[in-house]
Design goal:
Radius of gyration: 33 Å
Family: Belongs to the beta-catenin family.
Number of helices: 25
Order of helices and strands: HHHHHHHHHHHHHHHHHHHHHHHHH
Keywords: Repeat
Number of strands: 0
Oligomer: single chain
Strand content: under 5%
Distance between the termini: 132 Å
Structural class: mainly alpha
Largest sheet: none
InterPro entries: ARM-like, ARM-type_fold, Vac8
Length: 474
Amino acid sequence: MKERSRSKSNVGKKNKPMSPRRLKIDSRDDAERKDALPAASHLPTPRSSNITKEQDIEPEDSPRTQKQKRLMMKLREPDPSLAELLDVLTDFNNISHLRRVNACGAIKALTQHKANQIPLARTKGVVTGITSVLCAVNASEEERTRCVNALMHLCVPEDNWKLVYLFPQTPEALARNMADKYPQIRYAACLATSFLAKKNRKDVVKNRLLMYAIGRVLEVDKNGALETMSVQDRKVFVGARLCVLKMLLHLSKNKDISNTLARTECVTSTLVGVANTMEVAANILCIATLTNLTRHPDNAYHLVYSSPDLVNTFVRHIDLADAECNKCALFALQNLSCKTNCRQELANMPGLLGSVTKAAFRHDCPEQQLSALHTLKNLSDDPFNLVTMTNTPGCTATLLALANNDKRTDVNGNNTMVQFLACDTLATLSHWLLTLSKTRKSKEIGGEDGLSGKCGGSDASRRTFQQSTWEAWT
């Protein structure tokens, strides 16, 4: 009873220290830590919630709203000292800036310990208090830096991924700070989002704020911003961009959300814009993400006709020195060429047939060679591409050379498949030539036109092996 009365009396005294114990949060803030909180290792176990009356869940509520209401009913009440800390954290009117910074630092320290991360995420007021600071317009850099790191710590355990994202302000808080100008805040927000995206794929892709924020992170060097930064800040910004690219690659591998992601213009257009402008590791992630979007058959038409410069981006990557980028670009073109209504557009794309033809002759890269030949075969299935392909320098000659090459180029016997694809493509082109030469009705050729001989009732599509002369002497 004495302890309870002592804790109640302390609640009303806002300007006094909340605990006699000291917690060292950061070396640069030692002077500010005069009213710090109990050490993280001594975090009190949250008590069960006293809520007995269930909130009304209306039938017209969205599924997310219903889940949020159920979540709020299951949260546990915080310990009195933690509750006082959360009150300081969110009071922007009556609490001094220094005390709020100290409170943010204390929350950050509590979330650093693995044993506290799961209980704190399920304690009433913790996640909402952190996100309210991150969404507040008047929050300082120091407050947001500490709170975004605290949120990132809570996002580390896999058991928290669905729960933390379910809080109402979490997506907005992450989106606001992913596009922040301060490097540490941006990186922590990007890392936290990448954790939560693993189990909230559909919700993350559908959230426009997060998608726009991702686009801004990718465009970090659009206006030469990296050139004006210090070396350390540049590393952090590049790291944040790499983190977002890895998250997009993870999302693009999911079939269920591929359709939505491919139609998110702010993401696809940004990926196309930054392709081949970043470091090698980031560029591979970028082109691999775009390639994964072509795996869904329903995306092909949209990507070819509604994503400006996407196909040209793939064409440019075929000739790059990096083998992984070459492979991804050729795989993407192979997928796109399977769509019937995209073949003519692809065949008429400047430089596409020439680059694919060169790749088809790379005996030292079997995967790229096979992919290039598959692309040529797919394009040859459209009769309107006959003239385009036969007019492309080296295309027919390359197919003939590969069809007549009996030398084994691979221990796995891949040359057999190379020969087959080359012959199949030549046969398809020959089929369209033969079709063009056919006449659908029999003709009788008379002497009026100056031609000798008759072809009455014969099939004009078959070779006659007859020679015609002009007034030759015998």
